[in-house]
Every structure is written in C-alpha cells, then in structure tokens.
C-alpha cells in the first residue's frame, strides 16, 4: 500500500513539474524583456533537473541522478554567463 502511494506521488509530482516546465517555456517565448527570458530559462533547467530526479527515483536507476547533476552544473554556468552578458555586454573580458 505504501509503495503504491509513493508511485502515485511521484507521478503527480512529474505532472506538476511538466506543467511548470510549460509555464517556463511560455515565459521564455513571450517574455517582454531579456531578464524575464533568462529567469524562464533558469526555471526550465531547474524543473528539468527535478523531473530527472523524480524519474530516477521512480525507475531506481542512477544514471538519471548523474544526468541531473550535469544539467545543474551547466545551468548554473549558463545563468552566470547570461547575467554577465546582460550587465556588461560581453562574457569574456
């Protein structure tokens, strides 16, 4: 009974994360400013990372956890690069 509740909880979490990803994608497409688009991109990569973690828990496969870690690292670096580009107009000085 507890196992079934966990499976349903993870499934509901994945549906909610997919909905959050759709809203973030909408913000990326319709964002009025570049800052809004970057925040949408940050939200999208965080939700993608959480979706992979939920899928890894559901399937009990460790490859999804490693992939989520890579997405987190690349997303963080890209956020810093985008912020620096918006502040100064260039990434590499």
Automatic annotation (TrEMBL):
The chain crosses the membrane at residues 6-26, 38-57, 63-87. One of its GO terms (cellular component) is plasma membrane. Belongs to the CPA3 antiporters (TC 2.A.63) subunit F family. It comes from the Bacteria. Keywords: Antiport, Cell membrane, Ion transport, Membrane, Transmembrane, Transmembrane helix, Transport. It comes from Sinorhizobium fredii (strain NBRC 101917 / NGR234). It is found in: Cell membrane. It is a multi-pass membrane protein. The keyword NAD does not apply. InterPro entries: MrpF/PhaF-like. This is Multiple resistance and pH regulation protein F. The keyword Transmembrane helix applies. GO terms for molecular function: sodium:proton antiporter activity. NCBIfam families: PRK06161.1.
């Amino acid at each position: 009974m507890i196992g079934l509740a966990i499976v349903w909880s993870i499934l509901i979490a994945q549906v909610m994360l997919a909905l959050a990803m759709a809203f973030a994608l909408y913000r990326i497409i319709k964002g009025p400013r570049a800052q809004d688009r970057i925040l949408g991109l940050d939200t999208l990569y965080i939700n993608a990372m959480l979706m992979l973690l939920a899928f890894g828990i559901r399937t009990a496969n460790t490859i999804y956890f490693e992939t989520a870690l890579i997405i987190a690292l690349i997303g963080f670096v890209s956020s810093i690069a985008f912020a620096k580009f918006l502040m100064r107009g260039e990434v590499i000085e």
